[in-house]
## 1
Amino acid sequence: MDGKVEKDKNIILKSYKNLITTCDAYLKKEDKALIKKAFNLSLFLHKDAKRKSGEPYILHPIEVARIVCNEIGLNDVTSIVCALLHDVVEDTFAEIDDIRKEFGDTVAKIIDGLTKISGVFDPTSSTQAENFRKMILIMSDDIRVALIKLADRLHNMRTLDYMKPESQLKIASETRFLYAPLAHRLGLYNIKSELEDLSLKYTEPDTYHFVKKKLEETASEREAYIQKFITPLQEQLTKIGLNFTIKGRVKSIYSIAQKMQRQGIPFEEVYDIFAVRVVIDSKDPSLEHADCWKVYGILASNYDTNPNRLRDWLTYPKNNGYEALHTTVMGPQGKWVEVQIRSKRMDIEAEMGIAAHWKYKDKIDSLKESKFETWINKVQELLNNPQLSAIDFIEEFKSSLYTDEIYIFTPKGDLKTLPKGSTVLDFAYEIHTQLGNHCIGAKVNNKVLSLNAKLHNGDQVRILTSKKQFPTEEWLHFVTTTKAKNAIKEAIKERRKNMIQKGKEIFEWRLKQLQLSLDENHQVFKEMLAYLQIPDMKEFYFRLGTHHIDLKKVNEFVELKKNNLDAPIPQKVNEFEKLVLEKRGLQPDELVMGNVQQLNYLIAPCCQPIPGDSIVGFTEPNGIYIHRTNCKEAIKLMSNFASKIVKAKWTEHHDIEFLVSVRMIGQDRMGMLSNIVKVISTQHKKYIRSIKIDTEDGLFDGTIKFYVSSTEEIEHIINNLKKIPGVLNAIRMYS
Ligand code: MN
């Protein structure tokens, strides 16, 4: 026992010394005394606590302090003290006031921002969202809160192996949903990529390990190639007298996986896996831009460049302050290589992001300062909006992290600005709510597109409407702007109210016809609702109003009542579930999927998982929804409502079939459609539910929906579809 204590003590001292060595150069004598005081207090408060790995807890705050100083570049004494103390208020008996007394207001305020709200758990609100909003509130006053929080999250992600699978999923989703975008907004590129890679490791382990292995297998080949590419470049740059370094780099696992999934291509076809970075040490700051363009000139005279992929962030830095020149050139053996060119100063700022600016506050150039201020002002506006719930706040905050915008023209040539990724529907709502509510599509540059089509910079859009059109829940997946979302929700609420009224009128009229005068609270209606498995009269009226009611069942019930028999009320679904689970010897919180329909589990319409996909369940009022673990909607839910997560996995045998959508692109030729149908229904004996095909300029672009029973099966079918002559691509779609 004593040996263990002794050993722990040594580990703690070693890592503390390591921290001090790391930040030594930046600290004054009195700073060191303050850091020591913070360390001693943290050590005392966390004393016997252990991390899930079994290590002494104190190693976590020490490591967070090291990341803050070393990897984020925030090396002022306040930040290090706060990092060391970041968990004491949340996890020990210490209070904010104690911290204030010992370390002053600034430290207390930052630690408060890093401490979760304690108190009653209200299942209808989201504590996760409330906590995030609180952190952002304090961040808007002192950016260090966010930087320390990111260091904390990074260390937790690096050590996530020790957590339970549900916690891994929750933390990884939240990281992907909120913290990686935040790191991006603050210009911390390395941290953003590492957070994304690590979250992929837990949300899509198969994909992660597949790409990782592929990268390892091809590492030596890649290095040889990069060497071949940079040698002549080095010679020529030396000749013109530039001081520089060149490094080869590889895209992150996450970005490669994203490309593969989005474009439906294999690893080998992701063309810009190679990237090279040239960093110039300019003799004079005024020469930075000219030097970068010199490098570009040499590249362009040696290789073919792709003009569509030239990015000039020298003249127009990104909103997060990023400056560089990016170009893609055709290297030896016909491979595309992305080259990033930047000065040493730009390089440091790109690695350190906002921390670099924060530190050299007096040196920040006014353009960057104003861009950052604009963002912070926008965040403050959101924080001050009393109508935003914590969850809506997160939604809005997230969209503020991606400030990329697109410019769209109205038919008259007026310019509208929308966030990147906006659709026809967003544009319609941007102009007028009624235009949005009745939108059926648009003419975009004279081509007819559906209402969920994404818009691009410079598009001219004429909205097409129909009086019969009205918004549905599904539309919420098609829009990006809050304006559109709110308008859709409002319209749905309004319509529901109208439909309930209509249903009520129909029902009352029917009762009158039957010469019955019964109060809606009458026992017979309670029996009827139970018989139809409808929760309340409102819902009954609504379904009646929208003609979504099984009239056969209503008549059945009436017949039974006429004959004075008691209607048999179906056993409650929950009871039934319990029975089945018990029979299989399973825990109620562990769903084994397979006979999904029978158990009343619902397949989420947003991602339509099928056996083989890794899945997660969410408890909703009308049942448990099954999502794919990498579904956008699920990631959002896990970030806000971790308590609703239900572990789920597929059974081995699948006798149930699931709907999938496959998008196909190819030449528009005679017999193409019948070839496609033949592969799916004759060769694989699958039921096709729908086929939608657009053709233009000799190309067809179609979506086919059909039923399969596993991921293996769909892969097999897609491979066969790709073999059809003239088919250019076939991809499984997730929405
Ligand atoms: Mn922590």
## 2
Amino acid sequence: MLRGKHILLGISGGIAAYKTPYLVRLLTKAGAKVKIVLTESASHFVSPLTLATLSEHPVAADFTFLDEQGQVSWNNHVELGLWADLMIIAPATANTLSKMAQGQSDNLLLVSYLSAKCPIFIAPAMDLDMYKHPTTKSNLKVLEGYGHIVIPAEKGLLASGLSGEGRMAEPQHIVDAILDFFTKPLPLHGKKVVITAGPTYEPIDPVRFIGNRSSGLMGFALAEQAAQMGAKVILISGPTHLEQTHAGVLLTRVETALQMQEAVLEVFSDCDVFIGAAAVADYRPKELATQKIKKGATSISSIALVENPDIIGDLGRIKKNQFLVGFALESHDGLKYAQDKLKKKNLDAIVLNTLEHQGAGFGYETNQISFIHIGQSPVSFPLKSKSEVAIDIWNEILKKL
Ligand code: PMT
């Protein structure tokens, strides 16, 4: 059932690590290829040699290692993270959970986790009071908010001699959860999604342009999340420094609104969902100077503008079964303007972000949104990272697909 799947197993330092050789055995028996990364304290609980033998791969524990020629080599955590179809951290101790929730990176397991592009599973294990503690619960909630799947600890006798909840889920239960994940279709499996992101630059002359402050983060996060949910994604982005690495996302870079519209129209007809997260310039200079306009030139005292096409508005007119989601970036009276755009552009839903909320909108790593389905009351969310906001947006869209 797991033939050809690449599973990266991260082992942190708890007594439950003694069960991981059996977990590796079950995973490889199901056909998976397993690579292992473990923390230093995990190696006190389980032998790297046992794990390397069972997984048939060297176990990665340090940032560096000595290669066959005795040279110091670097354990490439980015490669490990990208190799994996799924990463499971088992056991995940309270310490490792806390560091994952905070994005700390002081060991190879943590940097591999931060580099991983694949779904993340977490099997916590610790003493019952540690498991019950509010900080552990809130760290697990944060990690679930990132879209990770937590396999809850089970009840039973603990290493402390106490009995209760805190035992790592049995290896067979962990494998069942992984099998379930790979055999159940992902929620966006078979769907084609088109997303616009970033700003557009409207050239004035060969060196100047009219643009805006969009970083592209929101659109890229939506694309990444859709791909993780199984969609085929076409991301059409205006100028941004962001890179896209998920295999399920095809990135087309454009510069102007006209180029963005052309790229969108090429792929719109057979898509299932379109999201307009780009901050498209509403106007462009009427004339493009072929040479740099010199200081003091009379032609710069005013720039005549012409209206750009309303990309999503035009899609609203030609759409058939596509689910159309727009964004509204407002500075005041957000709900009113968002509702107007929803109707005027014939959208199925709109995401409102307003500059009235600190940390929302352009440039920030965070956003605060209200999601409005046509004909329904807005659903408001607190300030979150743009990756978390993307999960909320997709969960709302999934209600209607
Ligand atoms: O990129 P980030 O820094 O992460 O910032 C994210 C964001 C603030 C840019 C994003 O969350 C957002 O709000 N994008 C839309 C911004 C915007 O231009 O809003 P608008 O209210 O002007 O446009 C409404 C909708 O029409 C949007 O879906 C927009 O993509 C679309 N539009 C607008 C003009 C136009 N000519 N064509 C369009 O398709």
